[in-house]
Amino acid sequence: MSAVAGGNAPVRRRGPDLLPWVAGAITLIVLVGFLAYPILTTMANSFAPQGESFNWFNGTLANFERFWTSALYRSALWNTIVISVAVTVLSTLVAVPAAYFVARVDIPFKPLILSLSIIPLIAPPFIGAYSWVILLGRNGIVTHYVNQWLGLPMPPVYGYFGVIVAMVLSNFTYVFLFVQGALSASDPHLEESARVMGASRWRILRTVVLPLAIPPMLAGAMIVLIEALGEFGVPAVLGGEMYVLSTLMYFQINGFFNLNGAAAIALVNVAITLVAILFLLRINKRRRFVTLGSTTRRAALIRTPGMRIAANLYVWGLLFLAILPQLVIVFTSFSERWPGTLWPLQYGWSNYTYVFNRVVGPIQNSLILGAIATVACVVFGTLTGYVAERKSFAGKWALDLTIMLPFILPGIVTGVALLVTFNAGPIVLTGTAVIIVIGYFVRRMAYIYRSVVAAVAQVDPRMEEASTVAGATWGETMRKVTIPLIAPGILAGAIIVFTTLISEMSTTVMLYSARWKTISIAIYERLETQEISAAAAIGTITIVVTLVLVFSATKIIGKSMSDLFR
């Protein structure tokens, strides 16, 4: 009787699922404290006179009127639009053929090509921009030999030409990786069916392959556009006397500490970004295709000699141009005497001795700030990513809003918003490490979130249910079952976050202080004082450290970083 009673004992009732509430509370804090409040404060203060906080009695449009009354503001606005559109279009035009060649043509060393294509994304763009001065400047190496051998004049590297070339070669990889991943994973039956029906290779390319590439192409183009609108380092180095909105914001803050004027410029920048994103989304909405089928077989590779030669020449030529600035950085870092001659007169290790003796602080700061921000992104992204994929609850839209907002805001705009918000009032964070960590966290939290969502989607929920039925708490299940299974996805996202934060510039340039200078600021300061070789040594160390982190982590997770774009 007792055995029967024991067998019929009531099952312990589980308490309410508090996880969505916890995730919701954390998301609300992030959304309100780090996004909504800074954005609204920035919007409000853009309508206030210089040096004042907005109230209902001092509202003015003076900060916006400068876009009509000031030639500097008008030219900065026009330059921003022209450069961003040109960089986006040209990046797409050069990336799509390379992506097609890598995905569909039988060329050697594809893993190496995909690995090298990551370098332009993780290298400091502004030191790379100065490499083009060394190459294409009035007394540049390439300029000299082109004039000597061909007698052709080179366009000036300062201004539109230099800025667009540098930004295209450092950003086209986004489009390349997205399109290459999509074409590699697409269903080959679509093309085979067209071929059986008698379509030529050109017709298949035009009517099947390219339409399938449009959604990932637009996704990559959107990232390029946002990066171009918020880029500070390249225009600061190669712009010459030309201003764009990002350098104009920096000029207003660094020159006059005009937070109100910078807030107005930031809002205009955001408006341009929103219009451009909505335009790209509208185009993408009209083209929805299923590119993945039930087959795991990839499309047959093209092996004709002519196509293989063309593919190798194009892909390796483009890749060489993309990593050429980084090669010039490494070369310059060993120059000890370069007194305006075509080539250095003396080489050595003195620049690295200088760096390790005098620039240790910024290197440590970058590693510390990047590590703290990465940990914060991992905690927030793992929790919210898991909840978004596994739970159903009201207010789920807030998660997507929190994740998407940083993509709409260029980095320099995020820096301005945080500076305007936390420069006065109940919470003052300017000049501290906290405000830099917040800026980094806001800009990069989506990377972990997306990685975790993708990883959790691949884990069978029944594994977690079995653990719960066996008596494990949710915490034990997460620690012993879920986290080990999704660890590669978390690690992959953390790698991207940390490596991109080491040389982050657009947000940092608005938030750093003398105590919390980072690697990017150390490089920029030495470029301004013409300590080119020292700046190159810092840049080389940054590139090497980043590459070591990336390739070491890829060994751990067992796949290439380029696979994350598939």
UniProtKB/TrEMBL annotation:
GO terms for cellular component: plasma membrane. Pfam families: BPD_transp_1. InterPro entries: MetI-like, MetI-like_sf. Residues 77-280, 363-553 form the ABC transmembrane type-1 domain. The chain crosses the membrane at residues 18-40, 76-100, 112-137, 157-183, 204-226, 259-281, 313-334, 367-388, 397-418, 424-442, 485-512, 532-557. Gene3D superfamilies: MetI-like. It comes from the Bacteria. Signal peptide: none annotated. It is a multi-pass membrane protein. Its main location: membrane. PROSITE patterns: ABC_TM1. PANTHER family: FE(3+)-TRANSPORT SYSTEM PERMEASE PROTEIN FBPB 2, INNER MEMBRANE ABC TRANSPORTER PERMEASE PROTEIN YDCV. Belongs to the binding-protein-dependent transport system permease family. This is Iron(III) transport system permease protein. It comes from Devosia enhydra.
